[in-house]
């Protein structure tokens, strides 16, 4: 690939990550091309489908997400491993809307093997935490979806708001006395401005 083609490709990926993080996966390919300063035809030559662009844009994040699950499974403390996954996944979601959409519901074949492996790893973490007596018996791995839906409702709020919500949720998942992060002053106007997410 020529130097200018490599630069165009790198610029497209950078812009795609930025726009997906800001607006989710619904960003038109033409908008990505325009902000990257390339023609739409050039964009489609490098990435023939939006799925191929999303896959390339989030390769590192997918690998990071799997690494988080793998590290948590290696943690000898089942509750700490479980808690770490919830905290890190929600932090990633709070800072990058596009990645969460890609990982959870973006495209049916998008990194499906990695997503499946992450899911099974998380289910194993849930079972370990239950077996240790630290996670409530009625918690389901599918409750992760509820956590992500609740956390996704904080779009536009400071990341600290997400961290406080996650701390509340984790306390609800077990009996404990862990100290919560400090409160974040938020206006109720944020609720009125919250976009539809379903």
List key phrases describing it.
198 residues; mainly alpha; Arc Repressor Mutant, subunit A; Tetracycline Repressor, domain 2; 70% helix; 0% strand
Low-confidence stretches: none
Q: Mind telling me the C-alpha Rg? A: 19 Å
Binned strand content: under 5%
CATH structural architecture of the largest domain:
Orthogonal Bundle
Secondary-structure element series? HHHHHHHHHHH
Distance between the termini: 41 Å
The coarse overall form would be: elongated
* CATH top level class name of the largest domain: Mainly Alpha
Give the helix proportion (percent range): 55-70%
Mean pLDDT: 83
What's the β-strand tally?
A: 0
Q: What's the structural domain tally?
A: 2
| CATH fold group of the largest domain | Tetracycline Repressor, domain 2
Class computed from helices, strands and strand pairing: mainly alpha
Give the biggest sheet: none
Give the number of helices. Answer: 11
